[in-house]
Every structure is written in structure tokens, then in C-alpha cells.
Amino acid sequence: MLKKSVTEISEDLKSLYIETAKKLKGSDRRQFMAQVVQGLGIGGQTFAERELGWNRRTIRKGTEELTSGQAFIDGRSRSGRKKIETKLPNILEDIKSIVEPKSQTDRSFKSTRLYTRITSEEVRRQLIVQSGYQEEELPSSETIRRKLNDLGYSLKRVLKSKPKKKIAETEAIFEQIEKINREADEGSISPLQ
């Protein structure tokens, strides 16, 4: 018994196939395409390539996945930017050596995280100074901040120094200075006393 050959399908069905394939990814998409082509019968691959804009190699890969029952691992999992540790293998150890002396544990011992007051920008500067990295090869301070979090360090906000509160003697000192200045302006005391 021969399978039917495809001659025509409606425009609605074409657009449904195309939109569905666009919404699917990876193995699901390939297997969907293969099922559609198998349903079309003899000449289905040619028809799908010409009318639906699908790639024959993708359809064949989907057909192999359907017959074997196993999805093929495609190269997408290996694509993208590599971690900074692959480019600079010692970076995590160097970051630890800079941050460790300036870290402390949680006072309440509720967590195992370490707290540090050094900023990620300062860690980046210290990597250049202490470890000899070049400015261009180092990641951004945001990446260093993420690596610090991955290593278990929590960054504490570095507080700006606050002015000390006035003490009681301050007013008396300024009153004395104002008195001396007034007397000097009036000429009642000589400036070299």
C-alpha cells in the first residue's frame, strides 16, 4: 500500500504549521516538523521545504528522532559566553585571597555566609595591583560581585563616615573664639598676646 502524495493544503493549515513550528524549540520542533511531513505522505519533505520554508536537514533529523525515540542533543547547550573561570582559571582563588582577610562571619551564626566591607570595584583594583591582571582581561565589577556571591560572600554597604555629634564643650570653645575675635577687632587686645 502506497502512501498518498501531497498536492495541496489550505492556507490556514499552512499558517498553523508555520506558527506552531516557530513556537516550539529544539527536539520538540524537529519532531513536530517530521510528524507533519510524514502526515503529508510522499513528497512531504519537498513540499514542506518549498511551501512551509522548513529545512530538509532539520526535517530529517526530526524523523530520525521519531524513529529512534531519543532526542538528539544539539549544540545550543554549548553555545554562549564561557564562564570567566575558563578564561582566567585562577581568578576565584585570587578573589578569595583579596577578600578573605577583610571578611567576618555572621555575628548571630544564623547563616554560613561571610560578610565583607570591600566593594567589588576595590576587588577589581586589587586584582590588578596584587595579582597582576591587566585591566582589559578582567571582567566588570558586576561580574566580580556575582562571583563573590557565588563564593559565599555578602557585600555589606560601605557606610560613609558620619560627622561626630557635637559635644557640650564645642559651644563653649566657639564662644571663646568669637569673644577673642571681637576683642581683637575692637583693639582691646593685641593679636600677639
From TrEMBL:
It comes from the Bacteria. It holds the Pfam family DDE_Tnp_ISAZ013. InterPro entries: Transposase_36 (IPR011518). This is Transposase. It comes from Woronichinia naegeliana WA131.
